[in-house]
Design goal:
single chain; five-stranded antiparallel β-sheet; signal
């Protein structure tokens, strides 16, 4: 009887452990709508895989991150991606990188990566960087001035930014914990949504005059 109780308890423990360790796969794209008929399916969560026997060195290679990006734009920054779109061999590996160039006073405006934590290293220049915690932590700003060789982490999903406060160009390299981190630039998403979000709603949400909101929507 005692052995039966032991085996029953052990079985329940194993079952509980297996349930506790179960998890859904991390999303690798914005949306992946379920479909009942497989023949109508187009996408998988990520990319389809090549036969491993057909893999070539070029599948794992990208050149050009040594070359500066064009910062001649209204924000004065440029991003060069090294994710699964540029390096097919990154598929399923959960990592990617970017090079970011900043003109003097250039900025990578407030944005978020819905699928990745980011670790940024400054190669040249001086950047003011930071992220904002969630509502539960009172939207606290965590910010710091970075110089050449400094490293800073932006936790997954949190709004963050970088601003070149130096008088010369700045360069940074960042690694992200997803093959396809995604990016949501806050101003573009809110004021540049297509179709537009009702300006009366945004005016109340941001405590702005509705004409100001309409002006902002026209800019994005």
């Amino acid at each position: 009887m005692r052995n039966v109780q032991f085996l029953t308890g052990f079985a329940l423990l194993i079952l509980a452990s297996s349930l506790a360790s179960a998890f859904d796969p991390s999303p690798l794209q914005d949306i992946c709508v379920a479909i009942d008929e497989p023949k109508n399916a187009v996408f998988v969560n990520g990319k389809f895989c090549k036969d491993p026997k057909l893999a070539r060195p070029g599948d794992f290679f990208l050149s050009g991150l040594d070359k500066p990006g064009n910062t001649a734009n209204r924000l004065g920054f440029s991003v060069k991606n090294a994710n699964v779109e540029q390096i097919p061999g990154l598929n399923t590996l959960g990592i990617s990188a970017v090079r970011i160039d900043y003109a003097p006073s250039g900025q990578n405006p407030p944005h978020t990566h819905p699928r990745a934590t980011e670790i940024l290293t400054v190669l040249e220049g001086t950047l003011y960087v930071g992220f904002v915690t969630s509502n539960q932590l009172n939207n606290t700003l965590v910010a710091k001035v970075l110089k050449k060789g400094d490293v800073f982490v932006f936790p997954i999903g949190l709004i963050h930014f970088q601003f070149n406060i130096g008088k010369t160009n700045a360069v940074a390299i960042a690694a992200l914990s997803s093959q396809n981190p995604g990016v949501i630039t806050i101003a573009n998403s809110v004021f540049g949504a297509n179709p537009p979000i009702n300006p009366d709603f945004l005016a109340k949400a941001f405590q702005l005059d509705v004409d100001v909101v309409k002006d902002l929507e026209a800019k994005f």
